């Protein structure tokens, strides 16, 4: 039987200054912020802070002493059933090595799995402007009076994040430049023509090494500064910030994702929302409408979206009740501040007795950021991409004692590891992809992130 949380109402306060005050007073190590954008999909934001403990998994199956991240997730779910609370953190793309062990997987520089356990969270309803403390204990939570006092203080004197220097776009070093990316697209098209693949999601990476002056003593302080810029410029329904602790204390994930990966409600209904098909937004109304119309009518983008829907239906079919898989939305238009997307929705009922680890194993990595057939696409992509993806194309997730689970696809994201800041962008490649157009798409997908940090 799942446990239900208690809710203690608190006076409404805008989330960001309260988050900064909590990071200041309670520490930023292990802080996880899952931020919505006020839309129907991003109605709530959640903050976990001062975690009781955390888990960090590193290494691939062939690494001595490495721990299976999916086994760790199964243990988390069992612990929640007994103790309550929630786990929040990230699972990296290369966790796929524990699903389909093969020689092409490479260990990422960041944790394969990092997650923190919280006995209480702050929850913000961005539509109704309500705030409450959610916890699984009996009676009033000890944090309640302190949070009331802190909210009053923040109203009087809102804190601000450390304002670091802007990061000029010219400082970013691309591991695969525009020409190299176009050549990789041509290679994938050759594999498709030979019948080796149907589709593959090719990514490119850029990074910058921050100077000692740009890096304060704590990873969290820098992560809060960078995320503060990102959230203003690139709001999204599945955004978030995770500041590592323990063995991942020098690592942080900053994400402005529009894509849900997997959601399970407490009754076992599973939903995934794959995105395939993207066009840039424009300030001029007619031009913006034409961009959206061109996307909706694009045979290439529609075919790519449907292909991934079929893949995800198959993935969910491994763990869902026979006959329960449905597609309530096929190739629908969704518009965000920077881009238009084509999004589909696939749902199914998780079979009795199966847990989150079973669901994730069946679907990992996400179909929209790998390809079809999935295992072969992952192998070919690892041959082309110069460095491992790490948390990029993985998931930022929350698993709670009431049986609910939600996760995004980590796109439109930044990864901080010590003094190195990294950003990725990717495009789905099919038979009729144009290498120049795909290189253009890769560029304008990454541009909003880099522009946000240049401010």
Would you write up a description of this structure?
With 455 residues, the protein is α+β, with helices and mostly antiparallel strands. The chain has one domain: Anthranilate synthase, CATH 3.60.120.10. 31% of the residues lie in helices and 29% in strands. α2 (69-83) runs antiparallel to α8 (356-363) and α4 crosses α10 (435-453).
List the keywords.
455 residues, alpha+beta, Anthranilate synthase, twelve-stranded antiparallel beta sheet, ten-stranded antiparallel beta sheet, 10 helices, 22 strands, globular
Helix and strand topology:
Elements: E1 6-10, H1 15-26, E2 32-35, E3 44-48, E4 53-57, H2 69-83, E5 86-91, E6 113-118, E7 120-125, E8 130-135, H3 143-156, E9 173-174, H4 178-193, E10 199-209, H5 219-233, E11 238-243, E12 251-257, E13 260-264, E14 269-272, E15 275-280, H6 285-296, H7 299-317, E16 326-335, E17 339-349, H8 356-363, E18 371-372, H9 374-384, E19 395-400, E20 405-408, E21 413-417, E22 420-429, H10 435-453
Antiparallel strand pairs: 1-8, 2-3, 2-11, 3-7, 4-6, 5-6, 5-19, 7-8, 9-10, 10-18, 10-22, 11-12, 12-21, 13-14, 13-20, 14-17, 15-17, 16-17, 19-20, 21-22
């Amino acid at each position: 039987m799942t446990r239900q949380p208690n809710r203690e109402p608190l006076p409404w306060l805008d989330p960001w200054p309260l988050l900064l005050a909590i990071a200041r007073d309670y520490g930023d190590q292990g802080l996880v912020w899952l931020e919505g954008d006020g839309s129907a999909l991003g109605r709530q934001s959640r903050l976990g802070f001062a975690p009781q403990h955390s888990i960090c998994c590193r290494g691939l199956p062939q690494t001595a002493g490495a721990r299976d991240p999916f086994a760790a997730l199964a243990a988390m779910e069992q612990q929640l059933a007994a103790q309550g609370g929630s786990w929040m953190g990230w699972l990296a793309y290369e966790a796929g090595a524990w699903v389909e062990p093969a020689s092409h997987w490479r260990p990422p520089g960041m944790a394969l799995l990092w997650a923190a356990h919280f006995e209480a969270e702050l929850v913000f309803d961005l539509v109704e402007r309500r705030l409450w403390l959610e916890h699984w204990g009996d009676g009033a939570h000890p944090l309640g009076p302190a949070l009331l006092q802190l909210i009053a203080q923040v109203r009087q004197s809102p804190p601000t994040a450390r304002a670091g220097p802007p990061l000029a776009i010219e400082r970013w070093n691309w591991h695969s430049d525009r020409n190299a990316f176009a050549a990789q697209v041509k290679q994938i098209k050759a594999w498709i023509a030979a019948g080796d693949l149907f589709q593959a999601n090719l990514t490119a990476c850029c990074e910058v090494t921050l100077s000692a002056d740009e890096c304060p003593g704590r990873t969290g302080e820098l992560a809060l500064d960078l995320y503060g810029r990102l959230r203003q410029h690139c709001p999204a329904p599945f955004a978030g910030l995770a500041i590592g602790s323990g063995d991942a204390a020098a690592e942080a994930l900053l994400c402005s994702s529009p894509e849900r990966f997997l959601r399970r409600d407490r009754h076992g209904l599973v939903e995934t929302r794959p995105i395939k098909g993207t066009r840039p937004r424009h300030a001029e109304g007619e031009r913006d409408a034409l961009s959206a119309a061109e996307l909706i009518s694009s045979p290439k983008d529609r075919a790519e979206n449907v292909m991934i829907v079929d893949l995800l239906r198959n993935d969910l079919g491994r763990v869902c009740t026979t006959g329960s898989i449905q597609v309530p939305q096929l190739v629908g238009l969704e518009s965000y501040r920077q881009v238009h997307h084509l999004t589909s929705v696939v749902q199914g009922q998780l079979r009795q007795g199966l847990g989150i680890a079973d669901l994730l194993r069946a679907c990992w990595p996400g179909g929209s950021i790998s390809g079809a057939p999935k295992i072969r696409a992952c192998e070919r992509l690892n041959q082309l991409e110069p460095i491992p993806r790490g948390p990029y194309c993985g998931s930022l997730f929350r698993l709670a004692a009431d049986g609910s689970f939600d996760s995004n696809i980590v796109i439109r994201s930044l990864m901080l590891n010590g003094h190195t800041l990294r950003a990725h962008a990717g495009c789905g490649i099919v038979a009729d992809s144009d290498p120049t157009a795909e290189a253009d798409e890769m560029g304008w997908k990454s541009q909003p992130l880099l522009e946000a940090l240049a401010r």
